[in-house]
Structures are given as structure tokens and as C-alpha cells.
Amino acid sequence: xxxxxxxxxxxxxxxxxxxxxxxxxxxxxxxxxxxxxxxxxxxxxxxxxxxxxxxxxxxxxxxxxxxxxxxxxxxxxxxxxxxxxxxxxxxxxxxxxxxxxxxxxxxxxxxxxxxxxxxxxxxxxxxxxxxxxxxxxxxxxxxxxxxxx
Length: 149
Known about the structure:
Blueprint: H1 7-10, E1 15-19, E2 23-27, E3 36-41, H2 53-74, E4 78-82, E5 92-98, H3 119-127, H4 129-147
Antiparallel strand pairs: 1-2, 2-3, 3-5, 4-5
Helix pairs in contact: 2-4
């Protein structure tokens, strides 16, 4: 894929939560999964192994931090992590707060639904996302200041 054609090179990829020098965190717009975040490497690389050791460590530290904040803020049943890149060959990690009531649980968000969506519970999670985003931005900014020393 050419960089000019890569959707994550030409667009944020979702609602921008935080932007750092090397990566950004966005909240994706994934129907039925309100707490679906992505950690996106800013420069175009296709694979995790394209990063040097310091870059890989930096990226994974950000993924872990996003996971921790989602756990603290939303108390999900599980956090799903994935770095598929089959549709968009630009390095990004999915960090998804999952709940035992969501339509696909315990299957993957890309699998067949297990039950009907629970609009009321989805809306309750969605109502909390502004404060979750703020907590993520604050934690990521503090971490960035620490890692830039």
C-alpha cells in the first residue's frame, strides 16, 4: 500500500484522544463497541517488527497504558488486544473494552454476534467516554513527559 493511499496516513482514523511524537490514540467508531480504541504508529510502517527495539517498547507501553485506563475507568469483563493490519497495513493496535453483555462476547468483535445488541448498556458506556478520553489523554501525556526525559 502506498503511503498516500493509506487511510491511517491521510486521516486520524477516528476521534483523536491524544497525539504524541511517535504515536496517537484514537477512539474508533465501531458500531456496537463504544470503548474501541486504537494505538496508531504515526509514520507508515506495516509490521511491528519494522520498528526498532525502542520503538516496539514505546508502542507496547502505550498499549498497556490504554488497557490500564480502560480497566480503571470502565471495569470491563475483558480487554481485547489485536494488531491484525489485514485491511489497513499500517501499524496499529486495537484496544477494546469488552463486556459480557456485548453482542459478540465472548467471540471476537469481528465474529458473528452471539445475541442482540443492548442499546441501553452501550449508551451507558458511551456516556462515560468523554471522561475516559480525558483520563487517557492525561495518563498518556504524563507518560510521554516521563519517556521524553
